[in-house]
Amino acid sequence: MRHESIPIEAAGSRAAAQRAEVSLLCEVRQGFDPWRLVRLEDISQSGFRIAWLPDANQVKPLRIRIPGLQMLTAKIRWQEGKAVGCEFAEPLHIAVFEHILQQAGSAGRLR
């Protein structure tokens, strides 16, 4: 399944436009719902895609805990089948993006 990139604020930076396929287990929640374990499958500095999120609500902000990072806030931008695409409230710093790719190991492939 292929998706279009989420619009990027820092379009002047080549790194900002990069998306990477990853496979990381993360936790997400919306509002006061319980934390749910999800698989992060695709990430860029501006957003990410998770494989599955039951009862996703595009109105509520989403919080994501990626192992080794502080909790981040995002907004759901699209849903297709079980996949959910989100945009970070604040784009990731390039060093944070690269850290996530290192964490993903060989699974982190830039597109």
Would you mind describing this structure in some detail?
The protein is mostly beta strands and 111 residues long. It has one helix spanning 94-104; strands at 19-30, 36-44, 47-50, 62-65, 72-80, 83-88, 109-110. Strands 1-2-3-6-5-4 form a 6-stranded antiparallel barrel.
Could you provide a short overview of the structure?
The protein has 111 residues and is mainly beta. The protein is 10% helix and 41% strand.
SSE ordering:
EEEEEEHE
Largest sheet: 6 strands, antiparallel, barrel
Strands, total number: 7
* Helix count from the secondary structure assignment: 1
Mean pLDDT: 84
The strand line-up of the biggest sheet is 1-2-3-6-5-4
Rg (CA only): 13 Å
Which segments are poorly predicted (pLDDT under 50) over 5 or more consecutive residues?
A: 1-16
Separation of the first and last Cα atoms: 14 Å
Beta-strand residue percentage: 35-45%
Shape: globular
Percentage of residues in helical conformation: under 10%
Q: What is the structural class?
A: mainly beta
Salient structural properties:
single chain; 111 residues; six-stranded antiparallel barrel; disordered N terminus
Would you spell out the secondary-structure blueprint of this structure?
Blueprint: E1 19-30, E2 36-44, E3 47-50, E4 62-65, E5 72-80, E6 83-88, H1 94-104, E7 109-110
Antiparallel strand pairs: 1-2, 1-4, 1-7, 2-3, 3-6, 4-5, 5-6
